[in-house]
Amino acid sequence: MSIKLVGKVAIVTGGAMGIGFGIAKRFAEAGAKVLIADIDARQAQFAADNLSNLSDYVIAMQVDIAEEDAGKKIIAKCIEKFNAIDILVNNAGIFPQVPMLEMAPDLFDKVYRINLLGLAFTAKAAALKMIELGKGGKIINIASIDAFHPSMIGLAAYDASKGGVVMFTKSLALELGKHGINVNAIAPGTIQTEGTSKPLEGSNLTKEQMEKIMDDFTKRIPLGRMGTPDDIAKVAVFLASSYSDYITGETIIVDGGILLS
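User: That's the sequence. What structure does it adopt?
Assistant: Structure tokens below.
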């Protein structure tokens, strides 16, 4: 069965590259109108232009998800351009690698403001508009397998924020069910993106050391490979579609089986 999103309007935060771009691409292929919201204005527009061969209805906007009114700005832009909002994918996030014993409070706070606070209040803004429009909707939060098991030293702030995303997803699903709004999450494992090909922000590792860590990690994956953005995007399309209408408050782990090891 081919999943179609024709007539739907979707927002993807952090959609300029990586997992976010993979999701935006699949949404466009499925027929949705897509707003790519990203802190990098140039890359966001480049991403939208790249998808112009799939859809005439992909637009870009620059926004810092850590700003207090970012969610309101995103929803306002979506309504201005498409006069609707059916799907929100909260994908924007950061993952600096700093051991907790070396962590500065402002960096910990930055991780939380983007990965959890920004996500939560963008979801709030989307939910309020979905309720006003009266058609229900789908909210999809991108969590991480690190919400369930730490993958390496140095990601304490990231791991804690993603654990928060999983529980926030459950709580918001409970609150919004009566409005016909499904809230679910995806927990990716290690995904090959522009970010995973270089040392993490704050890390003292060289590129060669990072590659060694990734090689060792890959050997532990039962399916024998790292994931791709499209592995996550296909699950996002399912959760955005009517095929997931009776699923809410869940987190789908997409990790090639690494948590089994």
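The longest strand covers residues 181-188.
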